[in-house]
Amino acid sequence: MENRLTVSSSPHIRGRESISDTMLDVILALMPAAFASVFFFGQRALAVILVSVASCVGFEVLYELAAKKKITVSDYSAVVTGMLLAYTLPVTTPYPMVIIGAFVAIVIAKQLFGGLGQNFMNPALAGRAFLLAAFPTHITNWASGRVGIFETDAVTSATPLSTEFHGEMPSLLNAFLGRMNDGGAMGGSLGETCAAALLLGGVYLLIRRVINLRIPLAYILTVAAMSFIPGKNPALQGQPLLAVLTGGVMLGAIFMATDYATSPTTKWGQINYGIGCGAITSVIRLFGGYPEGVTYAIMLMNVLTPLLDRWTKPRVFGAVKEAKAK
Amino acid sequence: MPKLTFKGGVHPKDNKEHTCMKEIRELEQPEFLVFPLSQHIGAPCAPLVKKGDRVYRGTKIADSPAFVSAPIHSSVSGTVTAIEPRPVPNGQTVDSIIVQNDFTDELDPSIKPLDYKSVKPDDIPALVREAGVVGMGGATFPTHVKLSPPPDKKIDTVIVNGAECEPYLTSDHRVMLETPEELVLGLKIILYRFGITNGHIAIEENKPDAISLLEGQCAKEGITVDTLKKKYPQGGEKQLIYAVTRRKVPLGGLPADVGVVVVNVDTCTAIARCFMYGLPLTRRIVTLVGGAIADPCNYRVRIGTPVDYIIEKAGGFAVEPKKVIMGGPIMGQAQFRLDVPIIKGSSAILCLTEKEAQLPEEGSCFRCGRCVEHCPMGLMPLYISKFSRMEDYESCEKYNITACIECGCCSFECPAKRHLVQDIRRGKQEVMGIIRARQAAQKEVK
Question: The whole model's pTM is what?
């Protein structure tokens, strides 16, 4: 009988939470934004999301098969990446481009660096950044209404963040809901439009303790504060709420910047990271060549993450003497 | 009043309902008892008896001249039949004295009660050492060493650790309920030794019966009963001291550095018994529990009783166990054989069924940071474990690997089910070795 006893290192019990539970929570939290995108942009929004998710999962399986690695799609992280990638794209993005973006996200940004947790850059944002560089006109083509599954040319409008935007700024309530004052969709990527839906998901993630407030709050407050700086777009100056509710700040602050693998693990690291994301976003918005800066801001801060962790190591319990010596 | 606690930690299901309402049972004595010569932290003992010697209950059978060590006493009367290597709960094989029980339970003639007030405070530690008392919460640090701090460390607070934060364990809980007078006397003896009055009994909130009972007992003695928040590792020495006194034991320091002595509940009653009855440490309370156990309960067990004998006498297994753990499920040691004896630090025998013993497969770290958030020592387990796996011990040391108390919160909380504390434990051994070598080299230079 002795030989049948299992011997292992302690602890002998573990908490229930697993990676897939966390990912399922994120997927659930992303759902309201998916509904909002279909409401504003029509069936094609759903199609883009499905194509993106299917390609991300597909590329993950194909890569892992080719590399003879364990198939890890059951952790649902590829589904999350697929949803996030789709959310950063205009609804009119041609499907082949979505697939290319998924390839860059999963194979190049994630798997080539070792898979889940090893990537130094948010895969969805890497995918979007690649598409933005490769197909700039398609990726900044903002529809203002619903689009059919196989339509690619729709009535378009500039985003309120753009200097080419000359219309009436949406009221705060409309900006919160994601629409212009005439009821059309606020120009933007399909997942970023409706701040209300994103906030709903964010609250769910906070309650489930999947994320904490540090990164999103630091990010949002920084963007709001920096909206008072005069920049290239005088219509937006001194409008902190509008600055936060338009563009990709909500999507970025709640779902992109909080990506575990590419954000710091320490309290002060997270706060500084959030501030950094907000500052770079605002600098690009105020002085840069692009109307929006969320993607590059988060990607730049992703690269700083290991350093932030190292600079903000928590104080070890009882290490009072050491701190004084410094 | 807000409940006392510390920063970090985890909330495992406590599983104490199986045994916490049942009275401690007396376990029958076995025919053969095994007394390993090292049951404590510090120098191993040398036998004082030889094969064929007659011993009584309470006869000292092994001792060491070293200060950090504690003598070992026979827990039954009988005859020494052998001194030979035997397996012990930590997986090693240790020279052990085997005693054949004659079932007369005759006491050693030297044993007689002693009024602690007739002893000079400075002589208390020597008597505690003579009784073989060590920390019975599992660490088995010789208690007299705690009672003899260097003269420059002024002790002003004594805390009895009744947190019992590990799931399943209820032995301390039962002791507090059934022999509160022994507990209070033990604490009074320690306070008397230091000439102070600031005594605390700190208990987790999930033992309200023990709290109210002891509050009644302590009111007239001037001893404080503290209610602690239910959180693991609330009973960790540094966490407990912080919760009760708000003092932080300095890194690499001892509780005495902040003027505190902490003793475990059963240790405290052992000190009381060595004066009340003159009895050395020869028995302890063991929680026998787990899904595989037919009739879980706490037992009063003679030290040296083999584990398989206890299980058999206590009603055996309900189902075949998949894992048998000495101690609690978070810090206990898994056993590969059941003929090991109960030693001074064995607080529980936890027998898990196949389902309970199942551990999830390890995934890859996705840097969620939960280990950092929950670490009660303020460490970054994800990095330390990675450095340890890479054998980068220099970085391990920079990230304060030696401050790890191996509580296992990081592994418990990790959604990727990484073996964090296992990696860190291994790395810590290596780093401690490197530090010792460095210190030795520095000494040579001087």
Answer: 0.90
